[in-house]
């Protein structure tokens, strides 16, 4: 690839331009054209991100593939892009997931096909923008822009209570991030008119101001993760969203919160981050343990997986705020693994729902007798969600627990409880849905997955196994970025951070 080639801009704008082209195709009379453009746009959007991985120097500090162009010169706002190892993996996850969602909705979506496909491509571009942005205002614009396509996806193609779920999702996430805009305006004034995140990292902020800025950022990112107790929008959004919406929401969109902590909270206000880490750890452990118990009693498969996501994302925030390298790397690995596993589980529920139009566990039983290939793939993802060694679900959770032991034995002990709860609610759901005698005539009539469904689930199965068996290609790009971030926090906070 030529030096200076705008790969990050391509990662952002290729899917967005493809989305615009899809909308030009017009009505459902051209639905097949919309599908083909969406597939081509999503695949091209993924392909342009691959050179980012192969051209990335894992040993180099700082941001790579930098792009900077004046945007709003009167306010010193720049179109400033760059990535490190943390954002690199999330960009790849997002672009990969978009391809799968387009394929998964190929036959399922029959109304407003062009608008459906375009919404996912816009969302993909906006999320890549969040992961690339090094200008605070640009970050905020992309961060808020992600709400619009997801609001439409839930509100138009969702279930019976879709409007309620879409509005609740929008209000929770928008209100959570408004205070972060106030914090960014304060930083703009303190930095004498700069929106550059790199400038913010060097600001000598007073402790009181750091606390207030941290709380403003925390509300925005905690809602997005989501952390307990601001998680209540997520089950409703997942239950009412179409399958593709649930996949992207769980696989990628929740990661915007974890990424926000890593990109803004820790480096900008490191002293406050370190000071308030105990609060975040406590909330994370509540999510891991309490929400795991809540998941155990769910009768709706999508709601169970939604609560499972809250519990697993508690591992992410725990790993970030224990401030050691193995814990933080484990948190990022967990974000990627959760993207694969939760996306696959929602797709599995979607496969069943497309056939039986029910998400209730009680309506199934003995599915393995009618759908053996599906049952085998579903088993793999259930095991990964339970943290089975050899799957991606084990790697991140094991690293976070190892990091937690360095911080406190009791953190690790409580975190490890989720492995028990995760196995309990996931495998109990799997047993009731898949095993046993055929429960009713509707289950007896089920057809096994077709080639399109097998392709989507097979790619995710390969990713789950590859990451579980050989995680080094995922982990090696993180070492320098994580160590640099921890060193920055330790230096600015004056704290003895375990390295």
Descriptive notes:
It is a single chain. The chain has helices at 7-24, 31-47, 50-54, 85-104, 113-132, 136-145, 147-157, 162-190, 197-200, 207-224, 233-240, 243-253, 255-268, 270-275, 277-296, 301-321, 325-356, 367-370, 372-385, 392-407, 409-434, 441-444, 451-469, 472-475, 479-493; strands at 64-72, 77-83. Helix 6 runs antiparallel to helix 8, helix 17 packs antiparallel against helix 20 and helix 19 (372-385) packs parallel to helix 23. It is mainly alpha-helical and 499 residues long.
Task: Write out key terms for the chains shown.
mainly alpha; 25 helices; disordered C terminus; 499 residues; 3% strand; two-stranded antiparallel ribbon
Furnish the topology, listing elements before pairings.
Layout lengths: L6 H18 L6 H17 L2 H5 L9 E9 L4 E7 L1 H20 L8 H20 L3 H10 L1 H11 L4 H29 L6 H4 L6 H18 L8 H8 L2 H11 L1 H14 L1 H6 L1 H20 L4 H21 L3 H32 L10 H4 L1 H14 L6 H16 L1 H26 L6 H4 L6 H19 L2 H4 L3 H15 L6
Antiparallel strand pairs: 1-2
């Amino acid at each position: 690839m030529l030096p200076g080639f705008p790969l990050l801009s391509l990662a952002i704008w290729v899917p967005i331009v493809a989305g615009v082209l899809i909308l030009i195709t017009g009505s459902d009379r051209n639905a097949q054209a919309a599908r083909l453009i969406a597939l081509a746009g999503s695949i091209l959007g993924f392909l342009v991100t691959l050179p980012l991985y192969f051209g990335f120097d894992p040993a180099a500090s700082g941001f790579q593939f930098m792009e900077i162009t004046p945007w709003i010169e009167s306010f010193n706002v720049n179109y400033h892009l760059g990535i490190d190892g943390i954002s690199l993996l999330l960009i790849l996850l997002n672009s990969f997931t978009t391809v799968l969602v387009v394929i998964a909705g190929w036959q399922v979506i029959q109304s407003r096909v062009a608008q459906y496909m375009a919404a996912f491509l816009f969302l993909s571009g906006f999320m890549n923008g969040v992961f690339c942005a090094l200008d605070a205002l640009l970050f905020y614009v992309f961060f808020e822009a992600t709400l619009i396509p997801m609001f439409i996806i839930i509100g138009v193609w969702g279930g019976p209570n879709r409007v309620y779920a879409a509005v609740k999702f929008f209000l929770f996430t928008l209100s959570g991030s408004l205070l972060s805009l106030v914090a960014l305006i304060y930083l703009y004034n303190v930095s004498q008119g700069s929106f550059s995140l790199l400038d913010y990292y060097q600001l000598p902020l007073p402790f009181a101001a750091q606390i207030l800025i941290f709380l403003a950022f925390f509300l925005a990112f905690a809602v997005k993760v989501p952390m307990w107790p601001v998680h209540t929008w997520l089950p409703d959004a997942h239950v009412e969203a179409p399958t593709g919406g649930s996949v992207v929401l769980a696989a990628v969109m929740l990661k915007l919160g974890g990424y926000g902590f890593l990109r803004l909270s820790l480096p900008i206000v490191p002293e406050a981050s370190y000071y308030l880490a105990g609060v975040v750890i406590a909330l994370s452990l509540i999510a891991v343990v309490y929400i795991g118990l809540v998941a155990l009693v769910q009768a709706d498969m999508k709601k169970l997986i939604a609560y499972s996501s809250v519990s697993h994302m508690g591992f992410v925030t725990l790993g970030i705020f224990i401030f050691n390298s193995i814990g933080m790397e484990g948190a990022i690995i967990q974000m990627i693994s959760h993207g694969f596993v939760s996306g696959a589980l929602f797709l599995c529920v979607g496969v069943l729902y497309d056939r039986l139009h029910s998400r209730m566990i009680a309506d199934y039983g003995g599915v393995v007798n009618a759908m053996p290939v599906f049952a085998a793939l579903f088993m793999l993802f259930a095991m990964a969600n339970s943290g089975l060694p050899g799957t991606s679900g084990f790697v991140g959770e094991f690293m976070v627990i190892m990091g937690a032991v360095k911080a406190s034995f009791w953190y690790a002990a409580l975190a490890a409880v989720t492995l028990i709860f995760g196995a309990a609610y996931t495998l109990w759901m799997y047993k009731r849905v898949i095993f046993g005698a055929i429960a009713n005539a509707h289950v007896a009539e089920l057809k096994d997955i077709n080639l399109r469904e097998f392709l989507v689930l097979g790619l995710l199965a390969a990713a789950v196994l590859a990451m579980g068996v050989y995680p080094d290609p995922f982990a090696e790009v993180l070492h320098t970025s994580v160590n640099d971030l921890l060193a920055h926090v330790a230096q600015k906070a004056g704290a003895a951070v375990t390295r």
